[in-house]
Amino acid sequence: MIRTQMTTLLKREFWEHKTLMLYLPAVGSALFLISVVGLLLLTNAASSTEIIFEESVFEFGLDKLVALDNAERTLLLGQVYQLSSYPFLLMSLVVAVNYLLGSMFNERKDRSILFWKSMPVSDALTVVSKLVTGLLVVPMVYLIFCLIAQLLSLFVLTLVLISTDYPVWDILWQPINPISHAFSLLFYQLMQSLWGAPWFGYALLLSAWAKSSPVVWFVGIPVAVVILERVYSPYDGLIIFDWLWAHSLPLLAVSGEGFNLEWMLVEVTGLLQGIVAGMIFVGSAVWLRGKHNEI
Asked: Do the Cβ atoms of 169 and 247 come closer than 8 Å?
C-alpha cells in the first residue's frame, strides 16, 4: 500500500515539474552535443588558416595525445571527461534546491494543498516523496541525461577517428572508461545528496512554513545567523559559518580532486551531522504541513 502510494506521489511530482526534470536536462544535453560538434568544426576549419600549415588543429591535438604514455593519457582524458559532467552536476544541485523550496509553498499559495490533504495519504509520506524527488529523482534524471550526452559525444568522436589511422580504442575509449565514470558519477550524486542534507531539509522546511518568497528566507536566515555569530561569538573562528559554508558547496569544490573520494575519510563527522540536521528539518516540515494550509 505504502509502496503504491509512494510510486504514485513520485510520478505526480515528476510530471508536475517536467520542465525542470525533463525539458531542462534535455536542452542541456542538446547544447552539450552542439558544443562538441561545433568544437570539431572549428578545429577542422582552423586547418584552412595559417595557424598550422600541415595538419588541422584536431590532428595536431591527437598527435600530442598519442605521444603521451598510457598513464598520462588516462589521467588527462579522465579529467576532461569529468569536467564535461560538471555543468550537469551543478545544474541538478540548483534545480533540486529550487524544487524543494517551491514543493509545498506553491501548493499552499494556489490552495491546491486543500485538495491533496483530502486524499488518503499521510503528511509524512507526502513530505518524504518530495524529499526523495529532490534528493534522488532530480540527481538521477540529470545523471542519465549527462551520461547520454557524453556517450553520444564519444560516438561522434569515434566516427571522426574511424576515418583516420589513430587507434580509437587506445586513445579514446580505454582511457576514459565510460562504465567506471558512470559509477563514479552515480556515487557522487548519492553522496552529494547526503552531504547537502541540511540545506535540502532546510529548503523543505521553509517551503512548508514561509508565507512569502521562500528563496528570501533561504538566504536571509543563514546570513542573519552568521552576522550574529560574527558580532557576539566569543571564539576567534566562525564555527557556524564554516559548517554552513562547507555543506553549501558541491563536493567537487570541497574535495578539490574531482571524484576522488578521499574526503569521505576526513568528513564522516560532518556528513553525519548534516544527515541529522536534515532529518530534524524534514521532521519539522512534516509537522508544519499538518498545521499549515493555504497562505
From this structure: no
Check if the beta carbon of residue 282 is closer than 8 Å to that of residue 129. no
User: Given the C-alpha cell 529532490, which residue does it identify?
Assistant: 134
For the chain, 295 residues long, give each residue's pLDDT as a single digit of tens.
778 888 888 999 999 999 999 999 999 999 999 988 887 776 665 444 444 434 554 555 666 666 667 777 777 787 888 888 889 999 999 999 999 999 999 888 888 888 888 888 888 999 999 999 999 999 999 999 999 999 999 888 888 778 777 777 877 788 888 898 898 889 888 888 988 999 999 999 999 999 888 999 999 999 999 899 888 877 777 788 888 888 887 776 655 555 555 545 447 788 888 899 999 999 999 999 888 667 6
Among all chains, which residue has been given the C-alpha cell 551543478? 90
Q: How far apart are CA 289 and CA 108, in angstroms?
A: 10
- Sign of dihedral through CA atoms 44, 50, 55, 58? negative
Q: Contact at 8 Å (CB) between 188 and 250?
A: no
Crossing angle of the two packed helices 57-67 and 70-103, in degrees rounded to 10: 110
| Domain boundaries, position 245 | 2-291
Count of domains observed in the chain? 1
Element (H, E) at 6: helix 2-16
Residues 47, 57: Cα–Cα separation, whole Å: 6
d(CA 93, CA 138): 8
HSE-CB at 224 with a 13 A cutoff on CA atoms is: 6
